[in-house]
Amino acid sequence: MAAAAVSSPLPPPPQPTTSSITSPTSISTPPMSNKSSWIALGCEGSANKLGIGLILHTPTSATILSNLRHTFISPPGTGFLPKDTALHHRTEFVALARRAIAEAGISPADVDCVCFTQGPGMGAPLTSVAIGARTLALLWDKPLVGVNHCVGHIEMGREVTGADNPVVLYVSGGNSQVIAYAEKRYRIFGETLDIAVGNCLDRFARVLNISNDPAPGYNIEQLAKKGKQLLELPYIVKGMDCSFSGILTSAEALAAQLLERGPDGAGFTVEDLCFSLQETIFAMLVEITERAMAHVGSSQVLIVGGVGCNERLQEMIASMAQERGGSVFAMDERFCIDNGIMIAHAGLLAYRTGFRTPLDESVCTQRFRTDDVYVEWRD
């Protein structure tokens, strides 16, 4: 497998075995060809993670200068509400931006553009961070670059892992998609019909009061490692699409039985239930990913998004890919979980093609589709 392409003060993330953005808010200007290096600041805040990072591009490399994150963690049994998450982002933005600049060892004058997540995501948190990005752009007299959150994940994954032209499994709290690149677009081959994988796991965690620190999905993963009994749960794959609301309803019903009767009365444990939920959901994702690989003739899978940190998911996808003579590329939490550096990287790729987002058109779009983006920087 290819080594990580991004230079970073941290060791490369573990890997399992084997234009411009067209939207209602886009314009482009002629690309600049007289520069030999570019620096972008990226601001991410589509959910409960506030991330700010700075990246340096040369014509042949990308170097992470800083990549900081601050997470809003709600009490066990609760989710994060948009208004509370937005307040967190507004409260922490300035301090995190100052720290990112200091850690990068640069001044605002060195920054070429300010990039921000324009969507998809939660409206209030997105808007809070967009306001912060606009403020920096105005203070520093720098151009703005709006970035599609999903494309940010994909481009960072490609850069870090060295994956060439993979089928992308994008799994996070708000998104679940199987994607492949073709003719300047990231084409969606399959996706969730209702709720996303991460949202399913988060809502299940609330029923059992599983901690949100550091993340409910991570804590479910640790409990699942101790599970021994595979319980029957709905398995819903429709062509290339999946449905997760039915499996969530069934898992919540079993959780209610467990809370009422206890492990002896219910005949299974919390660990068994977490194990069963993971195994069933991940099997569905493996199926549609394999079908996409067969359709496009790809031998590579790239896993991105917060749920992509799950080691069991990586293991199952790797097993499938190896059976097909292929390989899987995955990352750790530094790059899987929402972060500012992925927005800086994708934004700078677009900026270098001449893309800019006018201030008066820098509104956020909660349903900014992955395939709405014209990927001018790829062949």
What would you note in describing this structure?
The structure is a single chain. The protein is an alpha/beta fold. It has two domains: about 5-160 and about 335-370, Nucleotidyltransferase, domain 5, CATH 3.30.420; about 165-335, Nucleotidyltransferase, domain 5. The protein contains ten helices and 15 strands. The strands form four sheets. Strands 1-5-4-3-6-7 form a six-stranded mixed sheet, sandwiched between helices. Helix 5 (about 215-225) packs across helix 7 and helix 6 packs antiparallel against helix 7. It is globular, with a radius of gyration of 20 Å. It starts with 5 loop residues before the first strand and ends in a 23-residue tail after the last strand.
How is this fold's topology laid out?
Layout: E1 6-7, E2 27-28, E3 38-44, E4 49-57, E5 62-71, H1 82-104, E6 113-119, H2 123-140, E7 144-148, H3 149-161, E8 167-171, E9 176-182, E10 185-191, H4 197-207, H5 216-224, E11 237-238, E12 241-242, H6 245-266, H7 270-296, E13 300-304, H8 311-323, E14 327-329, H9 333-336, H10 340-351, E15 355-356
Parallel strand pairs: 1-5, 3-6, 6-7, 8-13, 13-14
Antiparallel strand pairs: 2-15, 3-4, 4-5, 8-9, 9-10, 11-12
Note the main attributes of this structure.
alpha/beta, 379 residues, Nucleotidyltransferase, domain 5, 10 helices, disordered N terminus, globular, 15 strands, 40% helix, six-stranded mixed β-sheet
Mean residue pLDDT = 92
H and E string: EEEEEHEHEHEEEHHEEHHEHEHHE
Helix content: 40-55%
Main sheet properties: 6 strands, mixed
Q: Given the C-alpha coordinates, what overall shape results?
A: globular
Q: How many helical stretches? A: 10
Per CATH, the class of the largest domain reads Alpha Beta
Low-confidence stretches: 1-29
Coarse structural class: alpha/beta
Q: First CA to last CA: what distance?
A: 22 Å
Strand order of the largest sheet: 1-5-4-3-6-7
The CATH architecture designation of the largest domain is 2-Layer Sandwich
Number of domains: 2
GO molecular function: metal ion binding; tRNA N(6)-L-threonylcarbamoyladenine synthase activity
Main location: cytoplasm
Cofactor: a divalent metal cation
Enzyme class: transferase
